[in-house]
Amino acid sequence: MHKTHCGPFWARDSFRTLVLPALLATLMATSPAFAVDRAPSALRGAALCNTEPVWQKWQRGLASWYGQAFQNLRTASGERFDMNELTAAHPTLPFGTQLKVRNPANGRAVVVRVNDRGPFTGDRSLDLSRAAASALGILNRGTAQVELLLESSADKLGAVTSLLNSAVACNN
Q: Which end of the chain is more exposed for a tag (fewer CB within 10 A), N or C?
């Protein structure tokens, strides 16, 4: 029996896993204008389905922090967690991505490096190390609304691919 494909060609697994990475690598290598912060609307994540460029302005989200209970355990990136480093866990951004996190309640800001996956609780968008939470003044509260700005991405192709995967969910 011949299997028929439903839906647009870009939503098919074969396109997303075989053709798209090669196409994106070629585009990014040949066009300096093609970057994560200027991704076409079809590549934006489910929460970002609008006409604004991705990460061009501050994104808001709920942040929490984690510390002593996870000290020296392996993170999703394979490195050991150090609660005294300025690091964070994010659900989709590539490891090594630098994020500027700002607490709008007090104006404090810090740059963190994504080295773990999470958070896995509720509607939170970022888990900060104890040091990052302390720098932002949110240790006592546990959680706080924060604003995020992409400083640099260690893996633009990985970031664009994760945005594309989110876009498929957005368009379905």
A: N
